[in-house]
Amino acid sequence: MENIIIGVAIGFVPMLVLLIVQYAKHSTKAKEHKQEIARLKSMLTDRMDLESEGLSKIKAEVAQLKGENENLRISLRTYAQKPGRKEVARLHVYQQAADRLTINSPGFGAAWQAALKESEDEFEKTFYGVQPFIRRVIPLKTSDANVVGRLEKDTD
Q1: What pTM value is reported for the model?
Q2: Among the listed residues 71, 150, 88, 74, the one whose alpha carbon sits nearest the alpha carbon of residue 123
């Protein structure tokens, strides 16, 4: 019976050593797995944070662009209702022609056509040549009373 106990003890010792080695390997692998899981969790949370920040920035940009789009739509509608540059120029020509007509014509028809033609020619000259430069330096409309009043004050 002693031999059986010695035989069992000899069998248990290598089994115990093998069990301890296997337990050590298993515990180191479990630690490595826990570290890997922690690393993957941190990477996942970082990525989710970045994506949520990006998504919030995109939502803010979309909201801003919607506001700008609405403002541009309103501006476009407002500009569509304003008279165009050609219309304003034509009205300016008509105003000059009507002013000339009231000053120097007893007959309206022929004088109106002549005044209109003169005004159109003069208005076209204001965009080309020396007149645009002069009009930038000297104001377009000067009241004769203001000029005479200034001259009188200067001579006193």
Answers
A1: 0.37
A2: 88
